[in-house]
Design a protein that fits this description.
- The chain has 18 helices and 15 strands.
- With 507 residues, it is of the alpha/beta class.
- Among the domains are: 144 residues, 3-Layer(aba) Sandwich (Rossmann fold); 155 residues, Hect, E3 ligase catalytic domain fold, CATH 3.90.1750.
- The protein is elongated, with a radius of gyration of 31 Å.
- The N and C termini lie far apart (62 Å).
Length: 507
């Protein structure tokens, strides 16, 4: 007898956890082997079953229509197969109306459905489908109510846009600025508020500066830049279901800056250089030390490039600086990252040692969380049996099960955090030093645009004040700069000062 296997989970998060799909396949393959069935195909969906149109469910139906010799569908249980009436009817028609004596084996339910099944079995199966649909409908309704309640409390109830992170503390989810993107988002608003950029030129500049979509790493699109500039979430408010709410999250830009951007977008403020005819590589890289505004550039006498404070907050006293002089200062900045080869080897050895401790710690914590999760599951299973046997009341069951399931959810989140952690940070650490080495040795050979990219990688801001450039290094380049200053090629000094710099090793 020939069969197909169908397995499903509701979301990519469940699939990434790596438990459900493999467990389903193992169960169904073992069942097929015991029943001496030949499995012709396996169909796996990673999407909800509350709506019709699942990719591989549809493909399975088409496959069964074409391959009449395959008569058996193996699935774990009813709600893996469908949670909507239409898909149930579709499969029921395939079984009832053809003459091939097809069967659906619901392995965990110990039930085989065919056109010859007893009416009571068909009724029970139908009830399970209806109950599954009702569960999904009720879940959707409660989710919508919960999201609205969050919005009314000032908590943004959806996925964090670029520049923010969804975080969870003590079971409560909220937004906080993403340290990796906050400076880039601020810069984007500041640059556009000057009127020196069109959406197209701003998008191009952000791409050149390395701005990417956080999850995919793809290049930023103009439409996304537009949506970000229009989004009030960045100054502290948000729109949900057509209504504006005051958020409790920390804003990234001021409301005044956001409004200035809206005025530029709406044409209320004229753009100075909408076409961005001249290409100035260091715009958006430097901030004024006196007023905090972004530095911009302009062409004088058709050939001299001068950089200066944009003056977004009013007239600034910081003087103009020629591009040639600025490049000299930038070269001095990048040289601050130069470190001795012996120091590099020393730090690599320290990273290698700490990596082993890190991995052992992670494995231990995951094992602890897994054991606790299984213990709670055993308690829940026993609690359900006690409820069915009327050993405990419905109220006691609900109270206990709610608390234990909540704890299980927190445990799963902790496990996922550890599983997603980058345990290969030793290799990452080595690449940081290689990058620092290349940044200093190759910087002078690059074009101005490539130099700007390197500076953007190693620093979050460059502050220009009184003719000097002060870098705000990104981590861990701040440590590289500090150790370079400390060591200065003196190997003996390094060895003598190691006890005083143990904290540097750990960081």
């Amino acid at each position: 007898m020939k069969a197909v296997i169908y397995a499903r989970v509701s979301s990519s998060e469940q699939a990434r956890e790596g438990f459900s799909i493999p467990a389903q396949l193992k169960l169904l393959q073992g069942y097929a082997e015991n029943k001496k069935l030949t499995v012709e195909r396996e169909f796996i969906d990673i999407e909800t079953a509350k709506k019709t149109g699942r990719t591989n469910f549809t493909e399975m139906i088409q496959y069964l229509k074409k391959n009449t010799s395959v008569k058996i569908i193996l699935v774990e249980k009813t709600d893996r197969l469908y949670r909507n009436i239409k898909d149930w009817v579709t499969l029921d028609d395939l079984i009832e109306k053809d003459e091939l004596d097809r069967e659906v084996h619901l392995v965990k339910e110990n039930l085989v459905m065919s056109k010859d099944s007893r009416s009571t079995d068909k009724l029970l199966h139908g009830l399970k489908v209806v109950i599954a649909k009702n569960f999904i409908d009720n879940l959707s309704e409660e989710t919508r109510k919960g999201l609205l309640e969050k919005a009314e409390q000032g908590i943004y109830p959806s996925y964090a846009p670029i520049g923010f992170l969804n975080v969870c503390t003590n079971g409560r989810k909220y937004l906080e600025p993403d340290p990796e993107y906050i400076s880039s988002v601020k810069e984007m608003f500041l640059l556009y508020s000057t009127g020196d950029y069109s959406l197209e030129s701003l998008t191009r500049k952000m791409i050149d500066d390395g701005f990417r979509y956080p999850r995919s790493g793809n290049k930023m699109q103009k439409s996304m830049v537009f949506r970000m500039l229009r989004n009030p979430l960045y100054y502290g408010e948000f729109v949900w279901k057509g209504k504006l709410y005051k958020g409790t999250h920390k804003p990234i830009v001021s409301k005044e800056l956001w409004q200035r951007v809206q005025d530029v977008l709406d044409g209320k403020v004229s753009r100075h250089m909408d076409s961005n005819t001249h290409d100035f590589p260091y715009t958006g890289l430097i901030k004024c030390g006196k007023c905090g505004c972004a530095f911009t550039a302009e062409l004088k006498k058709g050939k001299y490039v001068y950089y200066h404070c944009s003056g977004s907050k009013g007239k600034c006293k910081e003087p103009y600086v020629r591009e040639e002089k600025l490049e000299e200062l930038l070269n001095e900045v990048i040289c601050q990252l130069q470190i001795d080869e012996k120091v590099t080897d020393w730090i690599k050895a320290a990273l290698h040692s700490s990596h082993q401790d890190k991995k052992a710690f992670q494995d231990e914590k995951i094992n602890e969380f897994t054991a606790r999760y299984k213990k709670l599951q055993n308690r829940l299973d026993g609690l359900y049996e006690d409820k069915l046997d009327n050993v405990i009341s419905e109220e006691t069951y609900m109270e206990k099960s709610k608390a234990w399931r909540s704890e299980q959810e927190q445990i799963l989140k902790k496990i996922q955090i550890h599983q997603n952690a980058d345990v290969n940070y030793f290799e990452f650490g080595k690449s940081i030093f290689e990058l620092a080495e290349k940044a200093t040795s190759r910087y002078s050979q690059q074009s101005p645009h490539e130099k700007a990219k390197i500076l953007k990688i190693v620093s979050s801001n460059l502050i220009f004040s009184d003719g000097k450039l002060i870098p705000e290094w990104r981590k861990p380049f701040d440590l590289l700069a500090s150790v370079s200053e400390w060591y200065q090629g003196d190997e003996k000094a390094m060895e003598e000062n190691i006890p005083e710099n143990k904290n540097w090793l750990q960081r």
